[in-house]
Specification:
This protein has 146 residues and is of the alpha+beta class. Helices cover 16% and strands 34% of the residues. The model has no long low-confidence stretch (mean pLDDT 86).
Length: 146
């Protein structure tokens, strides 16, 4: 994420809390981060993100959207590595949204959550609402098979 902005990012969806949305009886992980950059840098950052992902071994797609007032450009990775979908959206006003979704896996999302966090509610502040781009992204439970 430092390729886009080396300042703090807002955490929208943490990345290691299991979700069952769209997975039937299974589970997946979702991660969402947002930030803002100088609007004049949007095009250059899109190219930098695409180049970075390609250098990491990913095939990338792109998509441009325009509604008259607002335009955005996406860098997309589909069904590669730990990602079912990775999307980096850069809006011409400088807003940036990074979303990642892991593939669905069989199993009980509630049981997995209990294994990760215990049975009680997570304490306030356990999952941060802001983080630096150098903070390790916890997307899933490990780098191997889940």
């Amino acid at each position: 994420m430092a390729v886009i902005n080396d300042g703090p990012w807002e955490v929208r969806t943490y990345g290691m809390t299991p979700s069952g949305v769209g997975c039937g009886d299974g589970w997946k992980f979702d991660l969402t981060r947002t930030t803002t950059i100088d609007p004049a840098e949007v095009a250059g950052r899109r190219d930098a993100v695409a180049q970075h992902l390609v250098s990491e071994g990913f095939d990338v797609d792109g998509m441009d959207l325009e509604s008259g007032e607002v335009a955005s450009t996406d860098v997309i990775v589909r069904e590669q590595g730990v990602y079912s979908l990775l999307t980096v959206t850069l809006v011409d006003n400088g807003n940036v949204v990074v979303t990642a979704t892991s593939p669905c896996k069989p199993g009980d999302k509630f049981e997995l959550s209990r294994m990760l966090f215990g049975t009680g509610p997570l304490p306030e502040g356990y999952l941060p609402d802001r983080e630096s781009p150098s903070a390790p992204l916890l997307f899933g439970t490990d780098r191997g098979d889940r």
